[in-house]
Amino acid sequence: MEEYRRLVKKFVLTGVLVGIIFISGAIGYWLLEGWTFLDSMFQTAVTISTVGYGIPPDIKPETKVFSMILIFAGISVVLYGISALTQLIVEGKINKYLQVRRRLRMIERLRNHHIIVGAGKTGKHIISEFIKRNNPFVVIDRDEFNIKKLQDFFDKEFLYLVGDATEEDVLLQAGIDKAKSLITTLPDDTKNVFVVLSARTLNPSINIISRASDIETMRKLLYAGATSVVATAELTGVRMAMMATNPGLISFLDVVTFSGEEGLRVEEFVVKEDSYLANKKLVEIRLPQTYNLIVISIRKKGTQFFNPKGDTLIEAGDRLVVLGKEKDIESFSKFLKGESDQKEV
HSE on the CB side for 18, CA within 13 Å? Predict the structure, then answer.
């Protein structure tokens, strides 16, 4: 991205220099020969372009010297601009530059999207989930090769930025001010802290999830502004212990988490005021009978109710967590015509 910025600056600089030379030439002829400003501008254009109209007779010697300087300055600036254009054409960068601009414009139009920092192994699994759920996201990584590998793996193009997410400019380009969440998966805990600090400063209300290698780093990330922190060492240890003590439970969780052969999935639906679900009792919507879905919990005003009873009243703002096969969840979602990332219905 920095390379394209330099090329753009080169073209802008060329235009500015041409403008300065043109104005300076017009003022110079006006002062030296006393011509009208229009005649001075015309003579400047003729001199810089070297079209060969000739020099007016009886001009002062200092005007001739000024004209020579103007010609050399004009030629130098033009050659500078041509070199920039040649660099774009010869090195095949025009198409790449246009692709970057098109991608940036698409990112600018995003709202309530997710930002994934790091295109490594963890980022790969996150991207997989977002692709499955059709959630909008942007990936940030310093190495474009890592991103291209993931695009080849998923056989799908997705929005990305090549840059350092610890820099605020990169986060702003990713739409941090309009994003719903940011997930940082960098293997370096220090960099994750910097990313969290920058993201929280740029968007105080954004949901930030960060990876951490140990408990001590978890505290630092939470102090920096992370909403949630996942400690990989702790998570791995707990999982291995559960595999030893409760292998059957782990098998079930794997089915739900990784969408095994049964294709089970957990999904959250946020109830809107005009939703079909609003102001109905749980038994009335008949989710198990109609859509083969189980309501695991209902979150009301910050309180989580697990295994809610049939007479539980569903109100606007409630969050329903349901479990079922992926196709059944999609069918229910389409019925409710939920459009948001969290399936507001």
Answer: 16
